Amino acid sequence: MDGNWERFTPEAGRVLRMAEEAAQRMHHLHVGTEHLLLGLIQEERGGAAKVLRRLGLEEGQVRRFILQVNSEERRSSTRRPILTESTRRVIQLALDEARQRRDPRVDTEHILIALTQERIGMAADILRHLGINAERLRREAVRSLKERSVIASQPRLRQRRRTSLVDRLAVDLTALARRGKLDPVIGRETEIERVIQVLARRTKNNPALIGEPGVGKTAIVEGLAQRIAVGNAPSILLGKRVLQLDVGSLVAGTMYRGQFEERFKKVLDELKESESILFIDEMHMLVGAGAAGSSVDAANILKPALARGELQCIGATTMDEYRRHIESDTALERRFQPIVVKEPTVEETIEILRGLSSLYEEHHHLHITDEALVAAARLAARYISDRYLPDKAIDLVDEAASRVRMYKSPQAIRLREVYAELREVEQRAEEAVLEKHFEETGRLRKRVRALEEEIEALRSEWDHSDSVAVSPE
To answer: Global pTM?
Structure first.
């Protein structure tokens, strides 16, 4: 169940996952409101579960009703259940409820309130069958929200010390995930799970993502950050920050001998004192970084901290760079656990494009057909030989959408015509001024203002229009 996880508390996020898992276990084709209700009861740490139990609703009752009533065709073992329209409405209603109450994130009570407003799904049938009044349930959920402080519903973070230098040189990916600034990560669940498994190890708990440029190494780390942000990670990782360090920024400005070592050691000291996971893209740049004006490079400064387990680091690099720089340094290689990130297949790339298409539709204000996504993946794989999927297919979709937006939309065509007329009228107005035809000048200036107003209207319409579609052509 993909979505804006940062908009939900960890408890609410677990409810959505439990709902999907319940549908999967029951081999149902869809995730219905009944599965949401079951998830609300199962998430015992959520306020909604306490409300439901206080009114006499038990998990066994709901489960038996679902199994007796739901005669839906069983899905195949490989197909993932999809959300029903009722479930989508409930999730949107929960988001609206939280926004209206000025709550920072959706909690389990918001989902429960939304369920009481959705009268079509099976959850409403279950509540009626068991004699639970929807209005009373809503009032109890609202009361629970008021009683529980917002702070109590947030993930309990470990105490952190100040990390002023790290904050200047690194990007906090978990903070970006909570604010919804990261793209959804699709089709990399296995790799994310593997990274989590390595991070949870006692020794050699520093993953090294190895793969060609554009296969999605950074996206895997962003997926990890998103999981931590919503509480979908082992307790050992909850509350940690994933910090992406730019080696170039680390080296910048260190002109004199010893400056780089001092800066990097200070960064490591701050990281040791905080609950953070360091992510270094292009990790091969550590070897030799800062060594030009000093006696040691970044890799040699980092190795002792990794060896003692004082901090954790995720690295990412290509296979060629790993062999050239990392494998040649045996001590550094021993500190990392390699995870090979393979290029996705065309079919996997199509699924990735489908998951990302809404973001590009929103950005470009147009509709991207499914046929265009399929064509982008297949054409990129066939004709772009010097780059890798899914990056080259994503770029192809982005480029095509940009071109269609700029040249094919009715507003763009009309804008070009109006701009051409505007230039012509302005030129004629200047000539009329020179020839002292003031009556003609006034008429032309009036026409200029009318054209400028039309341009503003067309621009506004263009910004909000999605009437154009990106097709395979």
So the answer is: 0.57
